[in-house]
Design brief:
single chain, TIM Barrel, eight-stranded parallel sheet, two-stranded antiparallel ribbon
């Protein structure tokens, strides 16, 4: 007996964002269906992975995470090259040295670090600050200027500093990350504010703030899913691709940081799985860009995505 599959008829789609310049561009978004339901619509661009690079040696990364980057952690350009060798589709440069509690690097120093990384690799660049809103605004103004014309994805813009970062993106041709704390209405509000400054909606990526497996993943998943449903039903202020900073969350968990023990087993396998399961879960919720830390996590995630991108038309 023939089986009829009920199919949703969506009225809209996610914006497509282009990161980087030809011939090395990455496209994300453009979906006209829920994730991987190829029989209901189109998913023209697969989720992509960036590996994270710092402009200083991370002080608290466990040995199982630093081992793949031995010898390059003090050199962001060399670190970025190593990430590309591991298969990263993008590089996410975290300007941690600009934090007042770290080196309190100046915006000009941060811009030079960004330039060195951009010159070392061909893949597109994501650049984020230290999380101190006022400092990030000053830093991204200089970074955006230094990387003029490279069409990077920079952030993170919040309701308190979006004006400066948005202006830098507009003048220098970059995309922006709009960050809001796990609230669909706050995400919409920030997107509205940014578009009111005349930055095109297809140059905005939503950062809803995510949680790792066991540490808020369910709530983050529901926010992302609601965002995707809003995009597909015509809400233009939710129709932006979503970026997920999975690495920073997964590697904070005690399950990733705790060394080998009899009950939990080998740390390396456990920590990588914590990152992979978190990322693949958010891919099902509608994430488009994933910032990971371990190259083996990247490999396993990409293997999963390759399977999920296979046609399942009925």
């Amino acid at each position: 007996m023939a089986v009829t599959i009920a199919k949703e008829r969506w009225t809209s789609k996610v914006n497509e964002m282009v990161i980087g310049v030809e011939p090395n561009v990455v496209k994300v978004g453009g979906d006209s269906t829920l994730p991987f339901l190829h029989f209901e619509g189109e998913m023209p661009n697969k989720p992509v992975v960036a590996l994270e690079v710092w402009d200083m040696e991370p002080p608290d990364w466990p040995a199982v995470l630093t081992a793949p980057f031995a010898g390059v952690l003090g050199d962001p350009a060399a670190w970025a090259k190593k990430c590309v060798e591991y298969g990263a589709g993008l590089i996410c440069l975290r300007l941690a040295a600009t934090h007042p509690d770290n080196k309190d690097a100046t915006p000009e120093e941060a811009a030079q670090s960004a330039l060195k990384v951009a010159g070392a690799v061909d893949v597109p660049l994501i650049v984020i600050g230290s999380g101190v809103e006022e400092k990030d605004a000053a830093v991204m103004e200089k970074v955006g200027e230094a990387l003029n014309g490279r069409k990077c994805l920079i952030g993170c813009a919040t309701v308190n500093n979006y004006k400066t970062i948005t202006a830098s993106c507009m003048v220098n041709g970059h995309n922006i990350i709009a960050s809001s704390p796990l609230d669909i209405n706050l995400a919409k509000q920030l997107n509205i504010l940014i578009t009111e400054m005349n930055l095109a909606a297809d140059r905005i990526a939503i950062d809803p703030l995510v949680g790792a497996l066991g540490y808020g993943i369910e709530y983050a998943y529901s926010i992302m899913e609601r965002s995707r449903l809003g995009a597909l039903t015509g809400d233009k202020m939710l129709a932006m691709p979503v970026i997920c900073f999975v690495g920073q969350e997964a590697w904070k968990s005690k399950e990733a940081k705790t060394e080998d023990n009899e009950e939990w087993g080998a740390q390396e396998r456990r920590a990588i799985l914590w990152e992979v399961v978190t990322a693949t879960s958010f891919a099902q919720a509608g994430g488009s860009i994933f910032v990971l830390r371990h190259p083996e996590s990247l490999k396993q995630f990409n293997t999963h995505i390759a399977e999920m991108m296979k046609p399942n038309n009925y």
